Amino acid sequence: MKKVMFISSVGGHLTQLLELKSLFNNYNYVLVTEKTDVTLNLKEKYNTEYLKYGSRKYLFKYLFIFAFNILKSIYLFIKYRPQVIVTTGTHTAVPMCYLGWLFRRKVIYIESFAKRTSPTLTGKLVYPIATTFVVQWESMLKFYPKAKYWGGIY
Asked: Which residue ranges form the domains of the chain, and what is each CATH number?
């Protein structure tokens, strides 16, 4: 069975990723997100791993959390050895996407449903290395000409 890692930060990105939950049982999967009060119950429903939550609002603290999350991403990549990485973003997922790219895994990035007229920073960072880059609005193809427009995942 194919090993798939579904990864995103908390909030709307996780909400969008969980729209794909019907796919989880088709794969040997792991869900990776940030650990918060809101996400603790995910372990009851899904095979879940957590990264440390960090907000870019507190830049100095965030830099240490981001460095920790890079190391934890390496650990999780080695532990699960995903063949495919599926993400809706954001910063939490970037290191894992680059690990996937480095080790020639499929990286599927789904740009946020909330973005209709401008790209996200994460999208700009992952677009060059994504195996499949998906936009949920046709208007986003002008920013990502090689992307696939599949419509909304909601």
From this structure: 3-149 (3.40.50.2000)
Q: CA-CA distance, 137 to 113, in Å (whole number)?
A: 7
Q: Distance (Å, rounded) from C-alpha 136 to C-alpha 24? A: 21
- Total-model pTM: 0.95
**Which residues pair with residue 51 across a beta bridge?**
34
| Model confidence pLDDT, tens digit, residues 26-45 | 999 999 999 999 999 999 99
What is the per-residue pLDDT across 86-112, written as a single tens digit (0 to 9) for each? 999 988 999 999 999 999 999 999 999
